[in-house]
Amino acid sequence: MKVVAIYDFTARESSDLTLHHGETYIILHKQDQLWWRAKDKHGNKGFIPSNYVTEIGTIEANDWYCKNINRAEAEQLLRQEGKDGGFVVRSSSQPSSYTVSVYTHSSGKGEVRHYQIKQTDTAQFFLAENHVFGSIPELINYHRHNAAGLVSRLRYPIGPLGTCLPATAGFSSDKWEISPSELTFMKELGSGQFGVVRLGKWRAQHKVAIKTIREGAMSEDDFIEEAKIMTRLCHPKLVQLYGVCVTQRPICIVTEFMENGCLLHFLRQHSRTLGRVQLLFMCQDVCEGMEYLEENSFIHRDLAARNCLVNERNVVKVCDFGMTRYVLDNQYTSSMGSRFPVKWSPPEVLHFNKFSNKSDVWSFGVLMWEVFSEGKTPFENRSNLEVVEQVTQGGRLYRPHRASAHIYNIMYRCWHERPHGRPSFSELLCVLECLLISCTSAGRFLSDVK
């Protein structure tokens, strides 16, 4: 199979192969879904991250296509560039469809317009009905020279997320253990239930977050075994676990660095500037990450705003998935000896310690409540025992002030007493995407804070 590199990748180990954007490679062996063995035009062979390449002839191979970004991210990307006629093509919220997002100064101030690429009954593509083409690249090429109904011709393709490269599953194929000598510790970012988190660098060049695990805070041996599995979980809306330092104590967990920190703090600090649609996009980001965990039969067990992080483009990613099983902390311990965050937990966890993807769905509803209350604490004036009693008797969180009745209904569906009565993350994602389409098409843009 022939592929083309959509990102640069510098070999990190002797077994890796360097990738250059736009060059073609032959795939020799797909070791797994995440790392493939490839050969370049000079005959060099090695492992490459599969999410850095795409098959020749696919839409992803074009410099104007931006993978894994939503409407809000596209707008931010185009506004940062600020070029009249700057554009990207991205996957639409509607399945198997694409949208062209264009930046224009035509109204006297910069704005972004969005055009969905439509298809005829004969599978022809068009933006304006009088100009129909057999493929999306042909359509884009035509509109690069002719506005033909658009606010501007498509003048400047804006590359996929600029220099922001996607995370790889581990630093290399089968590499989950990291040597302490490869890490440079920099400023402290904060502290949590496990210990101190610092900004650092791996091999003096790759920015990472390093969590130094406080002695006695974690069941270490069990976690190390699980870490080997967790490094294989790779999704644009999950904070990537790169590996673990285990040769000395305290052990360190090395993850993707997220510039804007914890979602909970971000919500509290930016409460006056975040529009309702932007809040909804944040929930969509989390739901996408959780759908991936659901598909891979992985349970988070502690989904909350404090366990999500925000990157430089305000994309929200889920972190610390599965970690509560290894926490030795009274805050997570019930009278039965099990560990869980009470105010984010459903009845079957409170009473029977039964975790599932549907208990994660309940927690997601509480996370949505946190987002639309701009970082308030759920059941803030009640003790854990009072919360258990209230939830058991059918009591639920009130509608937060930034949530419409429709949005609150989504939360409330997550809080069904019985697990089978709650939607799956896949179903929730469809609901959120449809709601976002209706919001944005009705003109309720990101600045809408009413």
What would your notes on this structure say?
26% of the residues lie in helices and 21% in strands. By secondary structure, it is an alpha+beta fold. The strands form five sheets. The chain has a five-stranded antiparallel sheet with strand order 4-3-2-1-5, with no helix packed on it. The protein has helices at 71-81, 136-143, 220-230, 263-269, 276-295, 347-352, 357-372, 384-392, 405-414, 425-441, and strands at 2-5, 24-30, 35-39, 45-49, 53-55, 65-66, 86-91, 98-104, 111-116, 118-119, 125-126, 132-133, 156-157, 183-191, 195-202, 206-213, 241-245, 252-256, 308-310, 316-318. The radius of gyration is 23 Å and the shape is globular.
Reported for the largest beta sheet, the result is: 5 strands, antiparallel
Strand content: 15-25%
Order of helices and strands: EEEEEEHEEEEEEHEEEEHEEHHEEHHHHH
Structural category is alpha+beta
Overall geometry comes to globular
Ends apart, CA distance between termini: 52 Å
Into which percent range does the helicity of residues fall? 25-40%
Radius of gyration using CA atoms only: 23 Å
Unreliable residue runs:
327-338, 443-450
Give a concise summary.
It contains ten helices and 20 strands. With 450 residues, it is of the alpha+beta class.
What are the salient characteristics of this protein?
26% helix; five-stranded mixed sheet; disordered C terminus; 450 residues; alpha+beta; five-stranded antiparallel sheet
Write the layout of secondary structure elements.
Layout: E1 2-5, E2 24-30, E3 35-39, E4 45-49, E5 53-55, E6 65-66, H1 71-81, E7 86-91, E8 98-104, E9 111-116, E10 118-119, E11 125-126, E12 132-133, H2 136-143, E13 156-157, E14 183-191, E15 195-202, E16 206-213, H3 220-230, E17 241-245, E18 252-256, H4 263-269, H5 276-295, E19 308-310, E20 316-318, H6 347-352, H7 357-372, H8 384-392, H9 405-414, H10 425-441
Parallel strand pairs: 6-7, 7-13
Antiparallel strand pairs: 1-2, 1-5, 2-3, 3-4, 7-8, 8-9, 10-11, 11-12, 14-15, 15-16, 16-18, 17-18, 19-20
Helix pairs in contact: 5-7, 5-10, 7-9
